Amino acid sequence: MKHLKRYTMIGIIFALTIGSLAHFLYDWSGNNNIVGLFTPINESIWEHMKLLFFPMLLYAIFLIFKFKKGYPCITSSLCFGIVTGTLLIPLFFYAYITILGKDSFLLDIGIFILSILIAFWLTYKLTLSRRLEPYTFLLCFFVCILLICFVWFTYHAPAARIFKDPAVS
Length: 169
Prior knowledge:
- The structure is a single chain.
- This protein is mostly helical.
- Helix content is about 75%, strand content about 0%.
- It contains six helices and no strands.
- It starts with a helix and ends in a 14-residue tail after the last helix.
């Protein structure tokens, strides 16, 4: 359990660091289309959900290989954490926009940090409880659907508000 807690803390730092750097990677790459599949290509909420999703997915793959034998429920717990953390970003964003009526850079950063903390906390707690083990396939399926949506909608975004770049609007 001590090792899992330590690796959870490392995961939080990893996701915060990689997610923060990923925010700038598309520009740094000269707007490379491949890089854009995994990093934000604009300032839309949808694109910013990638900042949590991809770093946590990458770290999840590492954790699954490292801890699968000792924690058989880690795959389902990580998938639940990834999906929940990713979906919390627009939920928190639109909640505070509704209340305040405007966007706040500091609140956006806070949402990113809070979503990562919640995602990893849920992953840790649910791994220990083993409650999600029967739902592993379904939770992995949801992660795969999100992955496909991120890749597809990067360059084929629907006209919905979540996909709109506020700088262009």
